[in-house]
Amino acid sequence: MRKLLLIIMSLGMFISGSIVYAQTAEEEDLEHGIMVAKNTRNGKEIILNLKVEKDFAEALHFMTHQKVEAFMKWGTLELTEERVDAMLEILEDTNFVNKFFYKRTLEQWKEGNFKNVVMVHNRIWEMAEGDIGKATAYLDEQEEESYIKEHYR
Questions:
Q1: Which of 24, 57, 132, 145 is the most buried (most CB within 10 A)?
Q2: Structure-derived torsion over alpha carbons of residues 142, 125, 120, 64, reported in degrees to the nearest 10
Q3: What pTM value is reported for the model?
Q4: Same domain assignment for residues 14 and 76
């Protein structure tokens, strides 16, 4: 009986801890430079370590997907003010080859200027040697809202 009680208490503590972690995971992830994107083909999570340039670029690329028209979009990550701020902060401590490009992009986004989003998408797409999914246009407000509802709400 005592063993059963101990098991039940342990499970309760584990479940409680998991719930608390799930509620704060995004904040903790941003603080540590980890973002979780979603593969749009199979719905699986993609863990991105923003201290690695390839992952940093991929996070930026995935965020453009809510604002551009492209034949194929393989991943998605909601473009939020918190993510932009976190990426700018992480960028300060890096020696990325494309640091100036990333910084200029994120600073414009922070100001609410997304006119560069098709160019940003395609530049990162080309750096990754993409062959399908070049951005061709901006999504209008209604299309972007539909994309956000489909992928994040």
A1: 57
A2: 30
A3: 0.78
A4: no
